[in-house]
Amino acid sequence: PTIFVITPTYARLVQKAELTRLSQTFLHVPLLHWIVVEDSPHKTPLVTDLLAKSGLTYTHLHMPTAKDRKLQEGDPSWLKPRGVEQRNEGLRWLREDRRAQPGGDNQQGVVYFADDDNTYSLQIFEEVGVGVFVYMMLSAVQMRSTQRVSVWPVGLVGGMKYERPVVEGGKVIRFHTGWRPSRPFPMDMAGFAVSLKLVLANPEACFDGDAPMGFLESSFLQGLVTMDELEPKADNCSKVRVCAVWHTLDRETEDEERGGSAGSGTGFRPCSGG
Ligand code: UGA
Ligand code: MN
């Protein structure tokens, strides 16, 4: 099955560098369709050009974040959710496009949300296939085998070295997280993938920009799956060492998350609402 990767992106100094790095990761992944959604009132020449030269299968979309929802100069980065309208636009396109595709395999696929600034190892995409040794090595974080929603650890997130679902008897029983474990799905965007079938069967499922901070992922997953149904990858989410996705931060964000602007000194984001 094809992996549809939805990436929100916005203009800033590092944008071209980030997208170059990401596109060159994705070049290593077979059957990947990159859906790039610019946070912009129009498609920019920079992204248009980069995609055209990328060698990837892609769809280029744009959807500006409404002005009152957009971070303003000087705002701390956690103040408003980011990439919401863009991910929803990606989902809208995907649902429409898949409906228009003839044939029985238009429901086959996996949807993954990859921010433009994170670091993704090939291990999260790969399928088992090249023998037992490779199977052991990668055994695996393979999102391609997702039936409903698959999950795995994410490094360097939420002020922690890693966050992960905690698995017992093959089921996720709770989450190791530094931030509000009581959230329905206390996971980073980079830590899960959803089967296309499930996305298509739930046409109303989307990201809620009004969700309280940290509840964005939950707002989407809540209608789709229960904790009991999550499919743990990466050897039951235990293989943090071989994992696979890092929520790599710029220094500014890192300082903020360490408590700089929060002033709490705990390394966790302050809580607003909800
Ligand atoms: C964390 C999570 O990793 C995100 O998946 C989640 O959307 C975000 O928190 C949130 O709670 O809203 P973080 O690293 O803090 O992400 O956010 P960014 O990396 O700054 O933004 C996430 C994505 O949205 C990126 O792909 C970025 O390019 C895009 N973005 C950001 C926009 O499209 N427009 C913006 O104005 C800012
Ligand atoms: Mn980020």
Structure commentary:
There is one protein chain. The chain is an alpha/beta fold. It has one domain: Spore Coat Polysaccharide Biosynthesis Protein SpsA, Chain A (Alpha-Beta Complex). It is 24% helix and 19% strand. Strands 3-2-1-4-10-6-11 form a seven-stranded mixed sheet, sandwiched between helices. Strands 7-8-9 form a three-stranded antiparallel sheet, with no helix packed on it. Strand 1 (3-9), helix 1 and strand 2 form a beta-alpha-beta unit. The model is unreliable at 127-133 and 259-274 (pLDDT under 50). Bound molecules: uridine-5'-diphosphate-glucuronic acid (UGA) and manganese (II) ion. Manganese (II) ion binds at residues 115, 117.
Give a topology summary.
Blueprint: E1 3-9, H1 15-26, E2 32-38, H2 45-52, E3 57-62, H3 84-100, E4 110-113, E5 119-120, H4 132-138, E6 149-151, E7 154-155, E8 162-168, E9 171-176, E10 192-195, H5 196-201, H6 216-221, E11 231-232, H7 234-237, E12 245-246, H8 251-257
Parallel strand pairs: 1-2, 1-4, 2-3, 6-11
Antiparallel strand pairs: 4-10, 5-12, 6-10, 7-8, 8-9
Helix pairs in contact: 1-2
Bound molecules: uridine-5'-diphosphate-glucuronic acid and manganese (II) ion.
